[in-house]
């Protein structure tokens, strides 16, 4: 989670002119852009910026939730309760694994976008340094 927030913070600090990302498509380690990928890096930047507050808000709302009345039902048998606990533990594990996968993917995309933006700026700086006679 910290890696995701660190990557998005770095992206927000470095990408000063997001419009430079328009028409630039993601590349996989020097390969040509994927034919099925029709979203440019500007659209991805906008998506990544929109997702960050949702992740932050989601984490804050998890801490605000109180146990429901169903959890305090005293008539449940211990066998049923143990089975429910095992199910809850399995479901929680499944969802946490999914969240970890999503955050890893978002972190990777964010880092790739930031790297590509830095490359674009380097190209611009190199072309400005060349004499135009």
From TrEMBL:
Q: Which GO terms describe its biological process?
A: regulation of lipid biosynthetic process
Q: Where is the composition biased (Acidic residues)?
A: 70-87
Provide the species name. Answer: Zosterops borbonicus
Main location per UniProt?
cytoplasm
Name of the molecule in the record: M1I1B protein
Subcellular location, in the record's words?
A: Cytoplasm; Nucleus
Q: Which UniProt keywords apply?
A: Cytoplasm, Nucleus
Q: Which Gene3D superfamilies match?
A: 6.10.140.1610
GO cellular component assignments:
cytosol; nucleus
- One short Pfam name that applies is Spot_14
Which superkingdom heads the taxonomic lineage of this protein's source?
Answer: Eukaryota
Report the sequence similarity comment from the record. Belongs to the SPOT14 family.
Annotated region described as Disordered, given as residue ranges? 59-94
């Amino acid at each position: 989670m910290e890696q995701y927030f660190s990557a998005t913070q770095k992206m927000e600090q470095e990408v000063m002119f997001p419009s430079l990302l328009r028409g630039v498509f993601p590349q996989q380690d020097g390969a040509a852009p994927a034919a099925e990928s029709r979203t440019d890096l500007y659209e991805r930047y906008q998506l990544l910026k929109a997702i960050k507050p949702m992740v932050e808000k989601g984490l804050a709302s998890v801490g605000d939730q109180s146990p429901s009345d169903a959890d305090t039902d005293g008539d449940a048998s211990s066998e049923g309760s143990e089975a429910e606990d095992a199910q809850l533990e399995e479901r929680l594990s499944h969802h946490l694994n999914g969240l970890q996968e999503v955050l890893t993917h978002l972190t990777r995309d964010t880092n790739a976008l930031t790297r590509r933006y830095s490359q674009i700026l380097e190209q611009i700086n190199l072309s400005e340094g060349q004499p135009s006679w």
